[in-house]
Amino acid sequence: MSVRIIKMKSIFLFLVYVMMASATVMAQDTFEKAFNAGLANAKGGKYDAAIADFTTAIKLRDNNPKAYFYRGLSYYATKQSVEAISDFTATLKFDINYNEAYKYRGVLYNNEGSHKKALEDLNVATKMFPNDREAHLNKGIALSNLGELDAAIIEFDWAIKANSNDTKVFLYKGVALLKSEKFDEAVENLTKSLTLDPNNADAFLNRGISYRMQEKTDYAISDYSKAILIKPSDPDLYFNRAIAYDMTDNYQKAIQDYSKSIELNPNDGDAYFNRGISKVHNGNEDDGCIDISTASKMGIESADVVREKVCKK
Question: H-helix or E-strand containing 27?
Answer without folding.
Answer: none
